[in-house]
Amino acid sequence: MTTAHAVLTLARRGLLTPGSPRRVIAQLSALRRWGYGLGGEVHSAAARSPSSVALIDADGALTYGSLLSRASALALGLRASLGIGPGDRVGVLCRNDRGFVLSVVALSLLGADAVLVNTGLSSAQIAAVVRDHGLRLVIHDSSFEVPPGFRSMVRGGAASLVEGPPLSSHNSVRGAGAAVPASTAPDPSLHDTAREAAPAAPASIAPDHSLRDVAAAVDPSTVPHESRHDAVRGAALAAAPPANPDHSPKDTVYGGAPAVHPATGPDHSAQEAARAAALAEAASPAVFLDASLLDAVCSAAPVGVLSPPARPGRTVVLTSGTTGTPKGARRPNPGGLGPLVSILDRIPVRARSRILIAAPLFHTWGYAALQMAFGLRATVVLAPRFTPESTADLVRRHECAAVFAVPVMLERLLEAGCVLPGLRVVAVSGSALPGDLATRFMDANGEVLYNLYGSTEVSWASVATPAELRRSPRAAGRPPHGTQVAILSPSGAPVPAGTVGRIFVGNEMLFEGYAGGASPVESRDGLLATGDLGVLDASGLLTVSGREDDMVISGGENVFPSSVEDLLAALPPVREVAVVGVADEAFGQRLAAFVVLHPGASLSADEVRSHARQHGARFAVPRDVHFVAALPRTATGKVIKGALRS
User: Fold this and answer.
1) Which residues pair with 137 in a beta bridge?
2) pLDDT tens digit string along 177-188?
3) What is d(CA 342, CA 480) in angstroms, rounded to the nearest whole number?
4) 47 by DSSP, 3-state: which?
5) Where are the beta strands (DSSP E) in 164-313?
6) Distance between CA 537 and CA 499 in Å, rounded?
7) Rounded CA separation 571/550 (Å)
8) Which of 46, 238, 302, 574 is the most exposed place for a label (fewest CB within 10 A)?
9) Number of Cβ atoms within 10 Å of the Cβ of 389
10) Which residue stretches of 482-559 are H helix?
11) Helices 338-346 and 364-375, axial angle in degrees (round to 10)
């Protein structure tokens, strides 16, 4: 990427407008001292535009100056009370609200690593995350309860701040725990806007006693690094009953429909609780802090000034974790404005605009939207839960210019008849755009849709513009400046245009590897494999065919389930559909379709097969057709195909 292109892109998006020389110098100085992570972005924005609104949520508005002040106080409080500092790992188990934002900005200022915990994980998975990542602290929403036997900060004075039994006297294996949703029902985090009423934080907590009681109980010097977890991990797994993959995680289903799982046999809740307890016993000495207490921690913080940490904090994003324990992908800090310029090159979000982030902030896409918004000195609008009606209301009420979402949210908006007025950009990522969703959404909302293709490991690969989506509704687009996309054969050789191959990506924000020693991602000549198959046409437009491990080989023919899904989605009674390959004695594999109908609609299995036979290849006809109430999904809306196959 050339300097001229970067300057032109920043100018087009309104970032190079004139300002007070004193404030511009302060802005640039903040970036030089603090870097380009979240802490540096907030420092920079507060130096340039302290009175501009940074954040709007259910609790009101925060300016950039207030956000920096409160995040700094939180950082000082966490350092003074719990000894949190550079290199410490802290879990953030929060939905889309200021608790999440204050936490990750404070951790960035401290140089601590923020581990973004998926709100849809089961208690056993959360306990495993605490163990595998050596978490010192977990900041969690009030809607997640800490069960008996787990250490937590609670409301009240010094005598009642720490709840639960005494810590173990053994330094190497201290008590720790995992927050679990208050309800055992599927996590409704994205389809219910009702905000839980959090009890008010106490007016003050004495800094010399209350919070420091926890610090006295947890000796930072005893926190094991991930390389020292193997022995306790093995002991915990040996002692715990096996996890039931069909219950892990608790899958979010959008639109209020219940999750549909294969038959799971007897109730495994007791096994789940026992496994979580065993994993917690082997975890690091984590303390759980209710996010409703963040104001109290800020109030109790000693007066002081933060200096840039010797080691910049990193972000660890958990992979989907649809079965077993999710892996943690270590994300690098931006080394400059290059990553921001790359995205702005293809998605025309403007400086100081209002941006509604509907995608979960714990997900790579939601977190990237937050980073982009702060880099633009924009106003971030948040709601802890998604419904079509509340999203449309927020866009209207706050005059948002952009929305960052995941594709299934667009489908739900259309089903509810909700139009998003006045938008310049609706940017989606996280899963493929099914069927003709792109064109239907633009028919209702205008030419505003941008589809980013990427992954937790490679960040971004390409972006499809509205014009490209009109031409090809499933297009993944073209790589931004500074990004390279290659389609390679199994041997690693480039394939001709129009030929399906393995997708490899290179840019300056490739992840640094998995925490905990998971197998590395395949790389070739500095490019990382995405795990997807795709094709570049003669003009350089990328289309993703599907996951490498999703491709079905039936009777010697290669079938991509996504193409069959698009075919069946065109049937008017079909609300959504997923296609997977299942074992077949005669053909190796056969196709199985899981179909969700619109309310009141009817359709037979024979009609599904007839439509596929009439409009597709003979080997693309699903032999098995299952009508289900809903598809199992992760908290980011991705269909859990493993659950369907089993």
Assistant:
1) 90, 287
2) 333 333 333 333
3) 5
4) helix
5) 180-181, 287-290
6) 8
7) 23
8) 238
9) 12
10) none
11) 100
CA-to-CA distance for 508 and 506, rounded, in angstroms? Answer: 7
Residue whose C-alpha is closest to residue 403's, from 390, 49, 46, 435 = 390
- The confidence band for 628, taking pLDDT boundaries of 50, 70 and 90, is very high
CA 576, distance to chain mean position in Å, is 23
Classify 544 as helix, strand or coil: strand
CA distance 502 to 492: 9
**Burial of 487: CB neighbours in 10 Å, binned 0-12, 13-18, 19+:** buried
Q: Write the burial class of residue 238 (CB in 10 Å: 0-12 exposed, 13-18 middle, 19+ buried).
A: exposed
By DSSP bridging, strand 501-506 and strand 484-488 are antiparallel
* Three-class SS state of 281: helix
- Whether residue 495 contacts residue 487, with contact meaning beta carbons closer than 8 Å, is answered with yes
Structure tokens at 555: 């009777």
Torsion of Cα atoms, 359 then 363 then 364 then 367, to 10°: 60
Rounded Cα gap, residues 79 and 298, in angstroms: 11
Place of tokens 């960040």: 459
The pairing of strands 449-455 and 425-428 is parallel
pLDDT at residue 178, as a whole number: 35
Among 45, 24, 115, which residue's Cα sits nearest to residue 372?
45
Range list of H helices, 317-427: 338-346, 364-375, 388-398, 407-415
Give the C-alpha separation, 603 to 582, whole Å. Answer: 23
d(CA 362, CA 367): 6
Give the phi and the psi of residue 82 in degrees, each rounded to 5. -120, 0
pLDDT digits (tens, 9 = 90+) for 425-455: 999 998 889 889 999 999 999 999 999 999 8
Q: Both tokens of residue 432?
A: 């493929």
Whether the CA torsion 394, 396, 402, 406 is positive or negative: it is: positive
Write out the two tokens for 174. 């201290």
Closest by Cα among 7, 8, 47, 11 to 31: 47
Residues 157, 300 contacting (CB under 8 angstroms): no
DSSP 576-644: EEEEEEEEETTTEEEEEEEEEEPTT----HHHHHHHHHHHS-GGGS-SEEEE-S---B-TTS-B-HHHH
Is the pTM here over 0.85, yes or no? no
Percent of the chain whose pLDDT exceeds 70: 77
Contacting residues for 383 by C-beta, under 8 A, at least 6 apart: 57, 58, 96, 97, 193, 358, 390, 391, 394
State the Cα torsion 145-150-152-154 to the nearest 10°.
Answer: 70
Which two three-digit tokens encode residue 413? 């908006």
Beta bridge partners of 576: 596
